[in-house]
Design a protein that fits this description.
9 helices; TIM Barrel; about 270 residues; alpha/beta; 5-stranded parallel sheet; 3-stranded parallel sheet; 8 strands
Length: about 270
């Protein structure tokens, strides 16, 4: 946990059902808790992973109540796999399995693993579902700002909240998202002096009640961790390092930042 404090953090975006954790998933959750990172919010990125996240969270919470929560959604990479039953499936996960947000959903024009028109179609459908269920949106955007922000603008007032997770873009995009009332998720990208240096200044523009922290594990291992990590697998136990980096550049105590982001995350997901 953060040095010299008992304040805890919440990892609001961890791809815990990724195969990178197949051999030691329970141990990863326990190591996170030992580091002061609990609860965790497991990201659903497709029908299969969303169901797996919901079932795993439920089973784990039977012995450790409140340790895990899950979202339900389809990542733009997976949009091509959506079908007639997708929205009904996500609705069921929300209503019967307690998913706390719709997503990860949005647009990704960087890799175009799904056709762009298909991405837009299923982003709209998931935004409509979030509005129907009064659930927050857990959002992904990469190299698709114009289309993404246009669609988001049409639904932002119909949903209780929205978070642009793993924000890595420029000041203009950040200003737009903040003007729409979005929360912003910051990852270990901010610890990368090659790619994330600009975030050290941009994070200062995020209101303290709109900032959340995440690992996006197993991806985005902080580049400047003081220890070498085999296989470079990111884990929630490294979130305190990200928090300390953010706090240092905001000029505030790590414990204060932890308390603020913990409160923001609980409020956003209703946990």
């Amino acid at each position: 946990m953060l040095r010299g404090t008992t304040v805890k953090l919440i990892d609001m975006g961890i791809n815990l059902m990724n195969s990178a954790y197949d051999r030691d998933r329970d141990e990863v959750v326990k190591a996170a808790a030992a580091a002061g990172v609990s609860p965790l919010v497991i990201t659903g990125s497709g029908e299969r992973s969303s169901l797996a996240a919901a079932l795993y969270a439920s089973a784990y919470n039977a012995g450790q109540p409140g340790a895990l929560y899950a979202t339900a959604g389809v990542h733009p990479h997976e949009a091509k796999n959506c079908g007639n039953g997708t929205i009904d499936f996500l609705r069921e996960l929300a209503l019967e399995k307690g998913a706390k947000a719709i997503g990860e959903c949005g647009l990704d024009y960087n890799r175009d693993f799904s056709p762009r028109d298909v991405q837009r179609k299923w982003f709209v459908k998931q935004a409509e579902l979030a509005a129907e269920l009064s659930l927050p949106l857990f959002l992904h955007e990469r190299d698709a700002f114009v289309d993404f922000s246009t669609i988001l603008r049409g639904y932002i007032n119909a949903v209780p909240a929205a978070v642009v997770h793993c924000f890595t873009a420029a000041a203009g995009e950040l200003e737009c998202y903040l003007s729409l009332g979005c929360y912003i998720g910051v990852t270990g990208w901010i610890c990368d002096e090659r790619r994330g240096k600009h975030l050290l200044e941009l994070v200062k523009l995020i209101p303290k009640d709109r900032l959340m922290l995440e690992t996006d594990g197993p991806y985005l291992l902080p580049r400047d961790l003081p220890v070498k990590v085999r296989n470079r697998r990111n884990e929630p136990r490294f979130l305190p390092h990200i928090a300390e980096t953010v706090a240092r550049h905001l000029g505030k105590e790590s414990a204060k930042l932890a308390g603020e982001t913990f409160a923001n995350t609980k409020r956003f997901f209703g946990i």
